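TICKET #2291
ISSUE: user wants both folds in one file
ATTACHMENT 1:
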Amino acid sequence: MISVVMDPGADFAELLFGLAESRHSGIIETIGEDGVRTDLFLRRGEVIFVEQGTLGETLGRLLQREGLLSQDEYAQVINRMTEKLIDTEQLRFGEAAVELGFVSGAQIHKALALQVRRKAVRCLASAQVECTLRDDPEALDAVTAFPISIAHCVLEAVRLHFTEQRLSHVLFDVADQCPVVTRETRDFLSGLPLLPAEHRLIAKLPRDRSMLSMLRVAKDPLALKRLLAFLRMAGVLELVSPTNQSAGEQVVTRVSVKRRPSVPATPAAAATAAASEVPAPQRASSLAAQISRAVGRSAPPPKNEKRARLEAEQAFERGRAHSKKAKWDSALDAFRRAALCMPDAVEYELYGAWAAVMTAEDGEARKERVREAAIAARRARKQEPEMAYAYYVEGNVALEVGREDAALRRFRHAAKLDPDFTDAVRLARILQRRMEK
């Protein structure tokens, strides 16, 4: 195993492009800025499989988001998996869903391919990661391959996760250069699913203007910055000094080698780096304290990890069912049980935090729980940016403090992420009508 030390000026996406260029095969173990571990399985420079620790990217949650599985059907699948586990026979989620007749094998295969892509894109939400490279041919052969190019993953990640600050960091040292689209650039882009607006940006890219001057007059400077940053990280954007263009002299600048993460060069250095421990993420929350206090009143979590995860999901689904009926005390107990079985699951923490708000009386106790829910929502949103419930909770928190405009934005975003989230849709409509009066 070799630990990779990221250069302060480099982006994780650049490391992946370097591995794609060298057609690397192996497993990249990463821990992102949010503390989530993700393992990328690479074969000849392509991502073929991804393992990630967040609940939001599990197959069951993905099938629900895609409308292929209802909440009730999801609960039935979890129950079937638990029954099989009790009989000492393990059953995967996809197998159980097919066995129950809820989805077809083809739908599961398509969903698994989508899951790999989304997990890979989610991993790129962090610019800087703790990273270890591991050669493990047996592990690569053991997984089902769902190949996707690193360029596809980075392009989608740039659109979804790259902030303006992160984009500027990629471009800051060449902002005064003139980007030139070459045949190599066009060949590279020909195999990628560019949006119509991105095609137009490429077609209209001038050869005689610096990035800064183009960004100042661009109709959509953020879209242009995303495209330029993506091409620069991929190493296919030629950059010409504007001072030398008139003389016909082109100074070409590709992604600098110094921007690439450095890898220990000697076996001794590699062994020392690999032996260093990555500090575990600190998760001190009020809900965790509540769970600790509740341990004496409830059964301890199962020691078997598989059993603990299934029991957590069963408790979580009970909590969601209770919350839909406004039975908040029962919901809180169920969410606490789920979090007790899986203390690192931010989704369980968030649902429990909001249930705690709903069980509190008015006054200082409720205000404190609202603050705790806001913290839990921020943590959940950072780890799982597409979690609609996190935005829903933030919308309710905004309502609690009288900020209807902020609440409306949050409810709209929750409804955008999950159009079937009826409470978020309803509250967004109510606030919109109220603010129009």
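ATTACHMENT 2:
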Amino acid sequence: MLTVVNEDGTTPHGSLIDDIVREGARRMLAAALEAEVNAYISELADQRDDSGRRLVVRNGFHQPRKVTTAAGAIEVKAPRVNDKRVDEATGERKRFSSAILPPWARKSPKISEVLPLLYLHGLSSGDFVPALEQFLGSSAGLSPATITRLTAQWQADHKAFMNRDLSATDYIYVWADGVHLRLRLEEAKVAVLVMVGVRADGTKELIAMTDGYRESSEAWAGLMRDCARRGMRAPVLAVGDGALGFWNALNEVFPETRHQRCWVHKAANVLDALPKSAQPAAKRAIQEIYNAEDKEHAAKAIETFAKQYGAKYPKVVKRVTDDKEELLAFFDFPAEHWIHLRTTNPIESTFATVRLRTKVTKGAGNRAAALAMVFKLIESAQERWRAVNAPHLVALVRAGARFERGHLVERPEAVAA
């Protein structure tokens, strides 16, 4: 292979190393296609007509076509097979179909998987050509028709997900939150309600998601009732922000579940009500509460906060003291789990990607498309979620084990023995 190399090491098609990789990929693919065809013909070498001539033979090559791979766009000439055998059931001629390079393939499976993910994660369809041409050496992209088909498939996937049986999975901890998305074809925003749970093995998993009206009690209750109908047990602890709709619904559907308010939302709510000059010190005082050594020290930190700010800002202090029980609930669970249970960060971090995607596309077209998009984004993010710390303790929480200052308390019979 002779290539003109510029002084800076580049070639007319990019860098020299990229050209070498693409040429190597082209030769390897050509060799694999040849081997596949030769194996097919050899296997059927005994198939002959009445004159003794072979029924399956080589027949030159198909027209060259470009295939986009991870190594870039490469030109391929696939071997052609003349198969004269007739299918007795249908009466039609049999055909050779390559398992390596099907007739319709223009992208490798990996590229076909990456493009929808890039679209989901914030690259607009119009940006595909300039963005990917530098990497793949071709104008790979998703047409509007392809995006429409993808959205329809994602909607079907979400529907199947929301109909699955939940009786075989036990969720011990649950995070709940909502994200508000703008729709291009509707004036009002849509509230997407999301529930993420921790299984008995410590792994995190999307439980359910649907759209609702402003995170109302009825919308949350409808989602939870549907989960209960499909076999979901009441979680031991639920973590959420201060939205009353979720907590009212939880009390109705899963009354035995304990409440934990998100400290990130609570801190923001408290600090927003204080003058800017008082916010730095107040922020440190709030951190002293949720970073306390144990529940007893956290309660004392709340008392200190109340003394420090109660005289000047009594309403602000009440935002903490009135929710004391719900804010400190996480201290009754394993210390290794505290960092996971005091905020709704597992959902919030995923919502950041959702907001980026909708910002690029200026909002989904309708509610069904918005739900499908959020579902696929969370499904994609779920693959990167790590299990909670000390996952072996999660099953003990479900079994009713008691923890004091974050440590497992021995059972009375074990102590007596």
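RESOLUTION: both attachments delivered.
EXTRA DETAIL ON ATTACHMENT 2: The CA atoms of residues 309 and 317 lie 7 Å apart.
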